[in-house]
Automatic annotation (TrEMBL):
<dbReference type="Pfam" id="PF00701">
    <property type="entry name" value="DHDPS"/>
</dbReference>
<dbReference type="InterPro" id="IPR002220">
    <property type="entry name" value="DapA-like"/>
</dbReference>
<comment type="similarity">
    <text>Belongs to the DapA family.</text>
</comment>
<dbReference type="GO" id="GO:0047448">
    <property type="term" value="F:5-dehydro-4-deoxyglucarate dehydratase activity"/>
</dbReference>
<protein>
    <submittedName>
        <fullName>Dihydrodipicolinate synthase family protein</fullName>
        <ecNumber>4.1.3.3</ecNumber>
        <ecNumber>4.2.1.41</ecNumber>
        <ecNumber>4.3.3.7</ecNumber>
    </submittedName>
</protein>
<keyword id="KW-0456">Lyase</keyword>
<dbReference type="GO" id="GO:0008747">
    <property type="term" value="F:N-acetylneuraminate lyase activity"/>
</dbReference>
<dbReference type="InterPro" id="IPR013785">
    <property type="entry name" value="Aldolase_TIM"/>
</dbReference>
<dbReference type="GO" id="GO:0008840">
    <property type="term" value="F:4-hydroxy-tetrahydrodipicolinate synthase activity"/>
</dbReference>
Length: 304
């Protein structure tokens, strides 16, 4: 199966039981909702997937079970977030062995690599795997920016194919298109800039709130690509208070709480994370409840 690097790709949450085990029953409930809504791929092991808390054997279970549940309907993509080049190569090879069809890759964790070190890191992994790669460019959170000049060096590797564009600079979409044309696919990685990014020419959207609201997310994407801009914008304006829950340090707890309210998730997170409490919990619940009260009627977006 080929990864087209377009459409909506959920960065799915990892589901846990009350006793801190992987909860594949609820995970399958959510996965089914994503597939029925029309997503184009499933991304595992990102920030929302609480990857830094997962044991290596749990990552293997997660990939293998997801591949089984998806059953070839869409690509399964595994995130690589490692501290060393050697560990990243091993993780990429293990993901391929477990059945992943593509990789999303962060720059080196914890160490603020230089431009040359970052390019070498991505390049060495690209040379070690046959899987297509999407570079996650998020200098706001991870302190390393992958510049256009750095991409120029890396694009000699055919399997470096896409960027999850999370610089927060909407003009960067145009810069990438002007520089590389269609050679580097662009997926918006910031929920609150997703429609703007699509209007500027992005190919897809790696979303967080899709985990709780899959149909609305895919509808916005499909309507925008069909040039039904007013309809896309109306849904997006309704969606924005929810989307802002993604650009918050408590995004995992926020989105898992939203999944509870839409009946496709649980609130269990892995310590040291804890579920929301007090005033912040009440604030997020108010946003979710208001969104549910005013939830829009969607057009037949799957047949656009």
């Amino acid at each position: 199966m080929k990864v087209n690097w377009s459409g909506v790709m959920p960065a799915v949450t990892t589901k846990f039981t009350a006793d801190d085990k992987l909860d594949f029953n609820m995970f399958e409930v959510n996965l089914k909702a994503q597939l029925e809504a029309g997503v184009s791929g499933i991304i595992l092991g990102g920030t929302l997937g609480e990857a830094s808390t997962l044991l290596e054997e749990e990552k293997t279970q997660l990939v293998r079970e997801t591949v089984r549940m998806v059953d070839g309907k869409v690509p399964v993509i595994m995130n690589i977030a490692e501290q060393t080049t050697r560990a990243a190569i091993l993780a990429a090879n293990k993901a391929e062995e477990d059945g992943a069809i593509g990789l999303m890759m962060l720059p080196p964790m914890r160490y603020k690599a230089t431009d040359h070190e970052t390019v070498t890191y991505f390049s060495e992994v690209a040379k070690s795997t046959s899987l297509p790669i999407m570079i996650y460019n998020n200098p706001v959170d991870y302190k390393i920016e992958v510049t256009l000049d750095m991409f120029e060096e890396m694009l000699k590797y055919d399997n470096i194919q896409a960027v999850k564009e999370s610089t927060r600079d909407i003009s960067n979409v145009t810069r990438i298109i002007n520089r590389f044309g269609s050679r580097l696919k662009i997926l918006s990685g910031v929920d609150t800039l997703a429609l703007e990014s699509l209007f500027m020419g992005s190919d897809g959207w790696v979303s967080g709130l899709v985990d709780a609201f899959p149909r609305e997310t895919v509808a916005v994407y499909k309507l925008a690509k069909a040039k039904r801009y007013d309809e896309a914008l109306a849904i997006y304006r309704w969606f924005l208070p929810l989307l802002e829950l993604d650009i918050n340090s408590l995004l995992v707890q926020n989105i898992k709480l939203a999944e509870v309210y839409t009946n496709i998730g649980t609130e269990f997170v892995r310590a040291p994370r804890l579920p929301l409490q007090g005033d912040e919990r009440a604030r997020v619940i108010a946003i979710i409840e208001n969104a549910l009260k005013t939830r829009p009627t969607l057009p037949d977006y799957l047949n656009l």
